From TrEMBL:
Ca(2+) binds at residues 398, 400, 446, 451. Its cofactor is Ca(2+). Binds 1 Ca(2+) ion per subunit. It holds the Pfam family Transglut_C. It comes from Cepphus grylle (Black guillemot). This is Protein-glutamine gamma-glutamyltransferase 2. The active site is at 277, 335, 358. It catalyses: L-glutaminyl-[protein] + dopamine = 5-dopaminyl-L-glutamyl-[protein] + NH4(+); L-glutaminyl-[protein] + (R)-noradrenaline = 5-(R)-noradrenalinyl-L-glutamyl-[protein] + NH4(+); L-glutaminyl-[protein] + histamine = 5-histaminyl-L-glutamyl-[protein] + NH4(+); L-glutaminyl-[protein] + L-lysyl-[protein] = [protein]-L-lysyl-N(6)-5-L-glutamyl-[protein] + NH4(+). The keyword Protease applies. InterPro entries: Ig-like_fold (IPR013783), Ig_E-set (IPR014756), Papain-like_cys_pep_sf (IPR038765), Transglutaminase (IPR050779), Transglutaminase-like (IPR002931), Transglutaminase-like_sf (IPR036985), Transglutaminase_animal (IPR023608), Transglutaminase_AS (IPR013808). GO terms for cellular component: chromosome; cytosol; mitochondrion; nucleus; plasma membrane. SUPFAM superfamilies: Cysteine proteinases, E set domains, Transglutaminase, two C-terminal domains.
Length: 688
């Protein structure tokens, strides 16, 4: 027999992409999921493949120094009886000189970029030919993959969906902001693989790092560390919280991960300026979804940052309600992290499922700024000794807050109030633009027997149940929404649930604030020395907050923190109430003109009314949406937008992909920043 000569071959990127749900990454390269067969076609010249005469074998290699013992190299022959455990290749069919071969990786294979070589031999003569590269991803559809997720709608949301919502605002006024994850957009896959190859563990020991890339726990920990740059590790984002973002992009201005990841690559893996918690979490979510690990961004309201691990956050206020003698412990209005779905074979049974990963640099873990993966079940059960970083996240959702009021003579009074941490933990619902509350996955109902057991296990004092029914009660209420550019009222509502008259001093103070709990100058204040409360009566005391007083100091987080202090003259007891008021931005209106169809022009009309009393200068609209826009579209308005006038422009789009898509808009100006809007658009497929 003459030698078998390989003439051409086809990796069938398009067909394999469809079957492996990676088609949206384009058909320039072969991208497949582990444990699932993919088909390639080989064409020989001169003569066809003859079974029994010709031997075919493949070689797959990943990483810089592939070796079989590390699982980064595999050599396997084409056979009718493949082994269960490793890579295998089976002939599917043979036509005129064309041979279809089905290749399959084991469901625990290392993910990453592979090279594929074919070896043909007839008798003693053999030749080998490199036939291309492919990328192997995790496979949430395969029951034996450690990231297997049973529900198809969940797999669509948490692996395939390229757009979503992230919850922000405050516990009493939850807002959602649109986000373009864009994990299948051009170049994002190669940037994510590049991120794995710039991580310090890879640079220290390339072979060991590549051999561990079959484990989503390991990958999650690497991604959590690489999204921030606090370890001199060429991480993706630099964090900043001081409201000075002039030498970069304000964290509030981003509307997607694609722009951030592309900038990181373009500037030689220099950190992109600037991120805050939801930006870190969203970029990590993009990387994890891109690699095939089901992931979602979650938001915890009133999130504790407990630096000394005692599960108590001490806040010190002076008699006017101003923060005094700052402890490093903080309460963030909200804090975002990522949950990724995976099995935990490294732990005892019972901890598979959602794992919390927090890429925002807060505390070091094993010497590196990363956090997780921590099984959400372990957080709920108070199993603080398990890997990784459970005590820190347990505190974020369970710490107690104690307010100390420091009086003029330096003495401290402990407030009878303890505001509660870990509220309304939220994520986007599967397949819908609504909020799913997942607080119950992190903690048992407050006051329940189970909660008590968990706190005992976690060596934490059970919350002293406050005497709710007797004494004085203080709350801060808002009559209606607070809109940017307008004055509004807040009310201190005091209840005397005793049968004696009480006389008190009431201090009400409002300050502009950032979402991480820091406060700015005062923007409203009232001090009533003698408030008389009849038995069993309720009193409402209004405080008017004027736009002219908050205008200059409102941060881009749009928050005003209102603190009320009620001091009873007779006993000297102090009650504290705190409320974060979210100042609402104007709505961005998006109109779609024309019939939305793939590869056909569409016009979006985007507008916003200036609600302020002054003109807006340097107005910019930024628009993006996977499958709708070609990257980011930026529109700078030439003229200032006068008070109550409309900023408006039209954008031509040619949707590249069919299906449900989100068009996302961010508006920036000198006085109004980080205004977000989105519109769902259903794109009809191109008629054949």
């Amino acid at each position: 027999f003459a030698d078998l000569v390989l003439e051409t071959w086809d990796l069938q990127c398009e067909r394999n992409g469809r079957e492996h749900r990676t088609a949206e990454m384009g058909c320039q390269q072969l991208v497949v999921r582990r444990g699932q067969p993919f088909t390639i076609t080989l064409h020989f010249s001169g003569r066809s493949y003859e079974e029994g005469v010709d031997k075919l074998a493949f070689n797959v290699e990943t990483g810089p120094c592939p070796i079989e013992t590390s699982g980064t190299r595999s050599h396997f022959a084409v056979t009718d009886f493949p082994e269960e455990s490793g890579w295998n290749a089976v002939i599917q069919q043979q036509d005129e000189g064309a041979l279809s071969v089905s290749l399959c990786s084991p469901p625990n294979a290392r993910v990453g970029r592979y090279s594929l070589t074919l070896e043909t031999s007839t008798g003693y003569q053999g030749t080998s030919c490199h036939i291309g590269d492919f990328v192997l991803l995790f496979n949430a559809w395969h029951p034996e993959d450690t990231v297997f997720l049973r529900d198809e709608n969940e797999r669509r949301e948490y692996v395939l969906s390229q757009q979503g919502l992230i919850y922000q605002g405050s516990r009493d006024y939850i807002t959602s902001t649109p986000w373009n994850f864009g994990q299948f957009e051009d170049d994002i896959l190669s940037i994510c693989l590049n991120l794995l190859d710039t991580n310090p563990k890879f640079l220290r020991d390339q072979n060991r790092d590549c051999s561990r890339r079959n484990d989503p726990v390991y990958i999650g920990r690497v991604v959590s560390a690489m999204v921030n740059c606090n370890d001199e590790d060429r991480g993706v984002l630099a964090g900043r919280w001081d409201n000075n973002y002039e030498d970069g992009t304000s964290p509030m201005a981003w509307i997607g991960s694609v722009d951030i990841l592309k900038r990181w690559k373009k500037f030689g893996c220099q950190p992109v300026k600037y991120g805050q918690c939801w930006v870190f979490a969203a970029v990590a979510c993009t990387v994890m979804r891109c690699l095939g690990i089901p992931s979602r961004v979650v938001t915890n309201y009133n999130s504790a940052h407990d630096t000394n691990g005692n599960l108590i956050i001490d806040r010190y206020l002076n008699e006017t309600g101003k923060e005094d003698r700052r402890s490093r412990d903080m309460i963030w209005n909200f804090h975002c992290w990522v949950e990724s779905w995976m099995a935990r074979p490294d732990l005892a049974p019972g901890y598979d499922g959602w794992q919390a990963l927090d890429p925002t640099p807060q505390e070091k873990s094993e010497g590196v700024f990363c956090c997780g993966p921590a099984p959400v079940k372990a957080i709920r059960e108070g199993d603080l000794q398990l890997k990784y970083d459970i005590p820190f996240i347990f505190a974020e959702v369970n710490a107690d807050v104690v307010y100390w009021v420091v009086q003029g003579d330096g003495t401290q009074k402990k407030s009878t109030h303890s505001s509660v941490v870990g509220k309304n933990i939220s994520t986007k619902s599967v397949g819908r633009d609504s909020r799913e509350d997942i607080t119950h996955t992190y903690k048992y109902p407050e006051g329940s027997e189970k909660e008590r057991e968990v706190f005992v296990k976690a060596e934490r004092e059970t919350r002293s149940l406050r005497e709710e029914d007797e004494g004085l009660h203080l709350k801060i209420k808002l009559s209606e929404g607070a809109n940017n550019g307008c004055d509004f009222d807040v009310f201190a509502v005091i209840n005397n649930s005793t049968d004696t008259e009480r006389v008190c001093r009431l201090m009400l103070c409002a300050r502009t604030a950032s979402y991480n709990g820091t406060v700015g100058p005062q923007c409203g204040m009232k001090d009533l020395l003698n408030v008389t409360l009849e038995p069993w009566a309720e009193k409402r005391v209004p405080l008017r907050i004027l736009y002219e007083n908050y205008r200059e100091n409102l941060t881009q987080d749009n928050l005003i923190k209102v603190v009320a202090l009620l001091t009873e003259h007779q006993t000297g007891d102090v009650i504290v109430a705190v409320r974060d008021v979210y100042i609402q931005n104007p709505e961005i209106k998006i109109r779609i003109l024309g019939e939305p169809m793939q590869k056909r022009k569409l016009v979006a009309e985007i507008s916003l009314v200036n609600p302020l009393t002054a003109p807006l200068n340097n107005c910019v609209f930024v628009v993006e949406g996977t499958g709708l826009t070609d990257g980011q579209q930026v529109k700078e308005l030439e003229e200032p937008v006068e008070p109550q006038a409309v900023a408006k422009f039209r954008l031509d789009l040619v949707p590249s992909q069919a299906g449900l898509r989100k068009l996302m808009v961010d508006f920036e100006s000198d006085k109004l920043t980080g205004v977000k809007g989105y519109r769902n658009v259903i794109i009809a497929p191109q008629p054949n």
